Amino acid sequence: MSVRGAVLREMGLPAPYASSRPLVIEDVELAAPGPGELLIGVRAAGLCHSDLSVVNGSRPRVMPMVLGHEAAGEVLAVGPGVTEFVAGDHVVLAFVPGCGECGPCLGGRPALCEPGAAANAVGTLLGGERRWTLEGEEVVHHHLGVSAFAEQIVVSERSAVRVDPSLPFELAALFGCAVLTGVGAALNAVSIEPGDSVAVFGLGGVGLSAVLGALYAGGEVVAIDRVPDKLALAVELGAATVVADEGTVDAVRSLTDGGALHVIETVGSAFVLGQAYAATRRGGTTVTVGLPDPSQQLSIPAVSLVAEERMLKGSYLGSSIPSRDIPRYIELYQQGLLPVDRLLTHRLTLDQLNEGFDRLESGDCIRQVVIP
């Protein structure tokens, strides 16, 4: 079948993207789902910095590619051997398909699935197949097993999590990346106890999700960003704020009696991660979920890890088990404990994607959702 999708052929075109148009909406041929795969009608897809980092070339991927990885949709058809899903199911898609059989999966860490990571690196689905072509000949790659910026997509069943059909798709999509990563970092990567000091560096969709998770856990949250509107929203949600500028580390230390016990960095910058580490107190933990350019290097006082019993750790996909955590976080939202709806700031069409990435790069949004 032929569907409309956002194809990226060349990374690194200059901003503004509204002028350079790196994403072209084309009619792409989509093959039927194979064994263990699902045909999904995409109903909503979020714009994330992980997508922007492919557009700007800081996270190189194989080209051409249908971009997008944060999405919710409806199962339209299932491939051979699929027994866990039926047509009509509402699903959220996770951007690491957990095979369920490798060491990390068996150890309860599907975010580190080895076959899933290998498939994502070469632009295939988990089974090694590509279901996109242009004009019946040119192979088009999948983005993180999802390729959400399209009307319909084929994914591995291991990428999908069935969710409550009463949840609006435009909110459900956010649980596939922003909420899963940010809330997961606060609830899975660290152990926040009521009254613990928590600092969150960066208040995009992931960062504000981390704020929500930390507040839910009972943390006393300091939120850091350069954008006044994001700081204002963090205050409305229950956090104190610090403007990210010279003196940020001292300001965080002042607000947290010498440094926060838990610090979460979401920006994807080695410089900001260094600030986050410096704002962490003795005996504390610094967690990073941001993805900096691979060329960036981090320098910290090595002795502090031992002499101050500090911990520096990464968290991918919120250190989550998607099949467990996505429904759990949705339930918390429905109970009014995770106001995820406050993160949604813009609704776009496929044709407005390039303008949406300009908005994302400037920081003039929190989470934008495409309705294909």
What does this structure look like?
The protein is α/β, with parallel strands linked by helices and 372 residues long. It has two domains: 2-176 and 339-370, Alpha-Beta Complex (Quinone Oxidoreductase, Chain A, domain 1), CATH 3.90.180; 182-316, NAD(P)-binding Rossmann-like Domain (Rossmann fold, 3-Layer(aba) Sandwich), CATH 3.40.50. Helix content is 29%, strand content 27%. It contains 13 helices and 18 strands. It has helices spanning 17-20, 49-55, 103-106, 114-122, 169-172, 178-189, 205-216, 228-237, 248-255, 270-278, 302-307, 322-334, 353-362; strands at residues 2-8, 23-30, 37-46, 65-66, 70-78, 90-93, 132-134, 138-142, 152-156, 160-162, 197-201, 220-225, 240-243, 260-265, 280-288, 311-314, 344-348, 367-370. Strands 3, 5, 6, 9, 10, 17 and 18 form a seven-stranded mixed sheet that branches. It has a six-stranded parallel sheet with strand order 13-12-11-14-15-16, with helices on both faces. α13 (353-362) links the parallel β17 and β18. α6 (178-189) packs across α12. The radius of gyration is 20 Å and the shape is globular. The chain starts with a strand and ends with a strand.
What labels would you give this structure?
Quinone Oxidoreductase, Chain A, domain 1, 27% strand, alpha/beta, 7-stranded mixed sheet, 372 residues, Rossmann fold, 6-stranded parallel sheet
